[in-house]
Design a protein that fits this description.
Helix 1 (34-208) packs across helix 2 (213-231). The strands form two sheets. The chain has a six-stranded mixed β-sheet, with helices on both faces. Strands 1-2-3 form a three-stranded antiparallel β-sheet, with no helix packed on it. The chain is α+β, with helices and mostly antiparallel strands and 326 residues long. The protein starts with a strand and ends with a helix. Among the domains are: 2-77, no CATH class; 230-325, Trna Endonuclease, Chain: A, domain 1 (3-Layer(aba) Sandwich). The chain has helices at 34-208, 213-231, 277-289, 322-325; strands at 2-11, 14-22, 29-31, 236-239, 249-254, 260-269, 293-298, 308-311, 314-317.
Length: 326
């Protein structure tokens, strides 16, 4: 006989299922009410709870068996690990012994090889020492010959130097004599020029006293020319002609051996007031005259200059500083 729910009924908001029993013979469905179903439900519950208890006991037994097996497996693993460790220890000891034997054998072979190489090196060093001794002897012979050759060279150089010195002394004496003769002639010419300039200065002074401004300037130029010529008798003093590049005197410096050393363009000013435009004009005159230095002598000096200074590439000086600067 089976029980199955049928005839669903709606009571209020709940749905209830009424169980039925099917007759095994006639297949008639008989509705079960609470009084008929209670014994069957109780018997079914008891059977189910008994089976559930049996299942729990079986599962507990299985868990205990599983724990026991796991403990056995862990013990077996530990035993195997101990055996493996012991085996590894034994194998390591064997490997260490074998490696020590191999190392000892290699060390013996290495020592024999090093002894052989040491013997070869000693033989090589001995041969090199013999060659070095021979080379030192040859070097000593070479140095001896080199010293002898150097002595001969120094002796020859000394003889040549003496002969050259004797020739130079003769040349110097001759050159000094010729230079002195030429200097005397140049000094005489300069003295004659100075005398002529002084005569011109006296004449110009005489004319300047008559009040001519142009003559006063010429007198100043001639005085400057004469002063330069007297202080530097070996140099060439050229007065600048009117209408040329400008300036008053072109002073060509001559060295002791008569070689030209450069040129100075002189310009003199005798005014009461300074003009800044003088510098630019004198620089242009310097370029036209191809002079190395431009020197302006003026009683009126720029502001801030007391005796002399270099302004815009031009030396500016009071008349009392002219010759020291030159």
């Amino acid at each position: 006989m089976t029980i199955q729910p049928t005839n669903t009924m709606l009571q209020g908001d709940r749905i209830l299922n009424e169980p039925t029993i099917s007759c095994p013979s006639c297949k008639t469905e008989i509705k079960l009410n609470e009084s008929l179903a209670a014994p069957l439900i109780a018997a079914t519950r008891e059977e189910y709870e008994m089976r559930l208890a049996q299942n729990k006991a079986s599962m507990a037994a299985r868990e205990e068996e599983l724990k026991r097996q796991q403990a056995e497996i862990a013990a077996a693993k530990e035993d195997i690990g101990n055996q493996v460790a012991e085996q590894i220890k034994l194998e390591r000891a064997g490997i260490a012994i074998e490696e020590a034997r191999k190392a000892k054998l290699l060390l013996s072979v290495d020592l024999e090889d090093k002894d052989k190489k040491l013997a070869e090196l000693e033989a090589t060093l001995k041969a090199r020492d013999e060659k070095l001794t021979e080379a030192q002897q040859q070097q000593a012979e070479f140095l001896k010959k080199q010293r002898a050759l150097d002595d001969e060279k120094r002796e020859m150089a000394l003889i040549i130097e003496r002969k050259i010195q004797e020739g130079l002394d003769a040349v110097r004496v001759k050159a000094r004599s010729e230079a002195e003769d030429g200097l005397k002639m140049k000094v005489a010419e300069k003295e004659e020029q100075i005398a002529g300039m002084q005569r011109q200065i006296e004449e110009l002074k005489r004319r300047a006293e008559q009040g001519s401004q142009q003559l006063q300037g010429e007198v100043l130029e001639l005085e400057l020319e004469a002063l330069i010529a007297s202080r530097f008798p070996m140099d060439i003093i050229e007065p600048v002609a009117k209408g040329e590049f400008g300036g008053d005197v072109l002073h060509r410096v001559v060295g002791p051996a008569g070689q030209p050393c450069g040129a100075i363009l002189w310009e003199s000013k005798r005014t009461k007031n300074w003009s800044q435009g003088w510098l630019g004009k004198l620089r242009a005159d310097q370029r036209a005259a191809k002079a190395d230095i431009a020197l302006m002598i003026s009683e009126a000096l720029p502001p801030g200059v007391e005796t002399f200074d270099l302004l815009d590439g031009v030396y500016v000086a009071h008349p009392k500083c002219a010759m020291p600067i030159a």
